[in-house]
C-alpha cells in the first residue's frame, strides 16, 4: 500500500491560534496523561477533524496499571497574616492598616481621605506591650500627653490644642472616661478639625479606640507580663463561633493590672472584662452587642511641683501623697449596633451606646510653692484636699446611611446621618486646705524637706464626711444631622465636603 502523506487543509490556512498561558498549557498536558483517551488527527482529503481513539479496557502490552490517584484540597483558604486589609483575622500581624472606619464614619482607604489620619494597629499595641492610651500615642507625631488629673484621665495636646477629657470609643464620644486596651483592635487619630462629622469637639483633632470584634475563626490567648516596681499584668482573650448554623460568634477579653511606681505611695490595680456577641442574621445583616466593665483603684499623683522656670530640684520619687488614700474609678459601657447592606451601593449602620462612670475622689494636691529665696518660708507650700463622689452618664444614638454612586464620571460616597447625645454630670465634693492639728487653719509643708507629716485618719474621715464645698449638676443634650460627600475624580483627585447642624441644650 502506498504511504499517504497528510496535507494541510486549505480551509485552515491563514487561521491564527490563540496563545494559552503556560500554566494552562501545562495543566492541559498533565490532564491528558491521566484520562483513558487520546486525540488523533485525521485527514480525509477535504477536511481535518479530531477523532477520539477507542477506549481500551485492557492495558497495553508491557504496560503497568497505575493505582487510583485521589486529589484533595483543603476547603479553608490560606490567609496572609501580614495583609493589612484582613482586619477580621485574629492572627493578623500587619503593622499597617489600609482603611479607617471611624474617623470619617465610612470605611475609606486612608490614602483616599483628604485629612491627616494615622492608625496604630493591634500588632504595634501588642509588640510595645501598651496598656495605656499614652503608650500608644507616642507613635503619633504632633501629639503629646497632658496633665491627667493625677492619673484619673488621659488627656493630650494635639497640634497645639489641649484635647478635652472626652475619649472616642468606636467613633462615639464618651466623656471623662478611661479605657483599657485589652479589647482594642487599633487606635485611630484624626489631626485637625472634625466638627463637620462630630460636632462638639476640639480643633486639634480627636483619638478613637476601635474594639476587637467576634470572629468565626477560633482564637485563644493568655499573656502574663512582669515589670519594674512590682508591675504585673495579665491579659486573656477568646473568640470563635457559638453556632455556625445560626451565625453566632462570641468574644471575651479581660485583663488584670497590679502595679506600684517609682513615686512614693503611688500604686494602682485594675480589673477589666469585655464580652461581645455578634449575630449574622443574614449575609447582609449583622447585630453586635458589647459590654465593658472597668474598675480601677489608683493613688492621685500631681507630679513634681513647678518651681521657677522648671521643676523643683527634689528627688523625683517624692509625691506628697499618702498610701491610705485611693481614688476609685468604675465604668460600665453597653454598645449595641446593627449593620445592614441593601445592596453593593447602599449600606445602613445604626446603634446606641450607654456609659455610666462613677468616681470616688480622695485626693491631696499642692498649692503654689513659695519661691522667694529671701523668705523664711522658702519652699513652703499648702496642701489641699478634694474628697467626694462624682457620677457621669452619657447616652448616644445614631444612624448612618452610606450611598455609593457615579455622576458624569465622578465617583461619590455620600454619608447621611443623624445623632442624639445626652450627658449628665453630678459631683458633691468637700474641698479646702489641709489642717493637720485640727485648729481650722491651713498648714504648710516644705517641698525640700524629707520629713512630710502624714494626715491622720481622724482628719481624713472629717474630709470624707465633711460639708460639701461644691454641689454641681449639669446636663447637656445635642441633636444633629450631617451630610458628607467624598468625591473621586479619575482615581487621582479626592475632594470631601459636607455640613453638620446641631441643636444644643
Please tell me about this protein's structure.
- This protein is mainly β and 505 residues long.
- The chain has 2 domains: 99-210, TonB-dependent receptor, plug domain (Ferric Hydroxamate Uptake Protein, Chain A, domain 1, Beta Complex), CATH 2.170.130; 219-504, TonB-dependent receptor, beta-barrel domain (Maltoporin, Chain A, Beta Barrel).
- The chain contains 5 helices and 26 strands.
- Strands 13, 14, 15, 16, 17, 20, 21, 22, 23, 24, 25 and 26 form a 12-stranded antiparallel β-sheet that branches.
- The chain starts with 21 loop residues before the first helix and ends with a strand.
- The model is unreliable at 1-57 (pLDDT under 50).
Features:
505 residues; mainly beta; Ferric Hydroxamate Uptake Protein, Chain A, domain 1; Maltoporin, Chain A; five-stranded mixed β-sheet; 5 helices; 26 strands; globular
How large, in whole angstroms, is the Cα Rg? Answer: 34 Å
CATH architecture of the largest domain: Beta Barrel
- Counted beta strands: 26
Please tally the helical runs, counting DSSP H or I stretches of 4 or more residues. 5
The tally of structural domains comes to 2
Summarize the structure.
By secondary structure, the chain is mainly beta.
Write the layout of secondary structure elements.
Layout lengths: L21 H13 L4 E5 L4 E5 L46 E2 L7 E2 L6 E6 H6 L5 H5 L5 E3 L10 E3 L2 E2 L4 E3 L2 E3 L9 E8 L3 H4 L6 E7 L7 E9 L3 E13 L4 E13 L6 E16 L2 E14 L7 E2 L2 E2 L15 E15 L4 E21 L13 E28 L2 E24 L10 E3 L10 H8 L5 E20 L3 E12 L1
Parallel strand pairs: 9-12
Antiparallel strand pairs: 1-2, 3-4, 5-11, 6-7, 7-8, 9-10, 11-12, 13-14, 14-15, 15-16, 16-17, 17-20, 18-19, 20-21, 21-22, 22-23, 22-24, 23-25, 25-26
Amino acid at each position: 500500500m502506498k504511504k499517504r502523506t497528510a496535507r494541510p487543509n486549505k480551509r485552515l490556512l491563514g487561521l491564527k491560534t490563540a496563545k494559552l498561558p503556560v500554566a494552562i498549557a501545562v495543566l492541559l498536558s498533565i490532564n491528558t496523561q491521566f484520562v483513558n483517551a487520546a486525540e488523533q488527527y485525521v485527514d480525509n482529503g477535504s477536511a481535518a477533524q479530531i477523532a477520539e481513539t477507542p477506549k481500551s479496557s485492557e492495558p497495553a502490552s508491557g504496560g503497568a496499571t497505575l493505582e487510583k490517584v485521589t486529589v484533595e484540597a483543603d476547603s479553608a483558604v490560606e490567609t496572609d497574616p501580614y495583609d493589612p486589609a484582613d482586619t477580621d483575622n485574629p492572627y493578623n500581624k500587619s503593622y499597617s492598616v489600609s482603611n479607617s472606619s471611624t474617623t470619617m464614619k465610612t470605611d475609606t482607604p486612608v490614602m483616599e481621605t483628604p485629612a491627616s489620619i494615622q492608625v496604630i494597629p493591634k500588632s504595634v499595641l501588642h509588640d510595645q506591650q501598651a496598656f495605656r492610651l499614652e503608650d500608644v500615642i507616642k507613635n503619633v507625631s504632633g501629639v503629646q500627653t497632658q496633665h491627667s488629673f493625677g492619673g484619673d484621665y488621659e488627656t493630650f495636646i494635639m497640634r497645639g490644642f489641649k484635647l478635652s477629657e472626652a475619649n472616642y470609643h468606636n467613633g462615639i464620644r464618651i466623656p471623662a472616661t478611661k479605657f483599657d486596651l485589652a479589647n482594642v483592635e487599633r487606635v485611630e487619630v484624626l489631626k485637625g478639625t472634625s466638627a463637620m462629622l462630630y460636632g462638639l469637639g476640639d480643633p486639634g483633632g480627636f483619638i478613637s479606640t476601635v474594639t476587637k470584634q467576634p470572629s468565626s475563626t477560633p482564637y485563644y490567648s493568655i499573656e502574663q507580663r512582669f515589670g519594674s516596681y512590682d508591675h504585673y499584668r495579665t491579659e486573656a482573650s477568646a473568640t470563635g463561633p457559638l453556632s455556625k448554623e445560626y451565625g453566632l460568634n462570641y468574644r471575651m477579653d479581660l485583663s488584670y493590672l497590679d502595679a506600684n511606681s517609682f513615686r512614693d505611695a503611688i500604686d494602682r490595680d485594675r480589673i477589666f472584662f469585655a464580652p461581645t456577641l455578634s449575630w449574622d442574621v443574614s449575609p447582609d445583616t449583622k447585630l453586635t452587642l458589647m459590654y465593658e466593665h472597668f474598675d480601677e483603684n489608683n493613688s492621685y499623683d500631681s507630679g513634681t511641683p513647678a518651681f521657677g522656670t522648671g521643676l523643683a530640684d527634689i528627688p523625683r520619687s517624692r509625691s506628697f501623697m499618702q498610701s491610705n488614700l485611693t481614688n476609685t474609678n468604675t465604668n460600665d459601657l453597653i454598645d449595641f449596633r446593627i449593620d445592614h447592606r441593601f445592596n453593593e451601593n447602599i449600606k445602613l449602620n445604626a446603634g446606641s451606646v450607654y456609659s455610666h462612670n462613677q468616681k470616688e475622689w480622695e485626693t491631696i494636691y499642692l498649692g503654689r510653692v513659695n519661691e522667694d529665696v529671701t523668705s523664711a518660708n522658702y519652699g513652703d507650700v499648702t496642701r489641699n484636699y478634694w474628697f467626694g463622689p462624682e457620677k457621669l452618664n452619657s447616652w448616644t444614638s445614631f444612624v448612618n446611611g452610606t450611598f455609593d454612586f457615579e455622576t458624569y464620571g465622578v465617583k461619590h460616597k455620600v454619608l447621611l446621618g443623624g445623632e442624639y447625645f445626652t450627658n449628665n454630670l453630678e459631683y458633691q465634693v468637700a474641698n479646702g486646705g489641709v489642717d493637720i492639728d485640727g485648729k481650722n487653719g491651713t498648714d504648710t509643708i516644705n517641698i525640700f524637706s524629707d520629713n512630710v507629716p502624714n494626715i491622720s485618719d481622724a482628719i481624713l474621715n472629717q474630709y470624707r464626711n465633711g460639708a460639701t464645698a461644691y454641689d454641681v449638676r449639669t446636663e447637656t443634650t445635642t441633636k444633629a444631622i450631617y451630610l458628607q460627600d467624598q468625591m473621586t475624580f479619575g482615581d487621582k483627585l479626592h475632594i470631601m465636603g459636607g455640613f453638620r447642624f446641631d441643636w444644643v441644650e
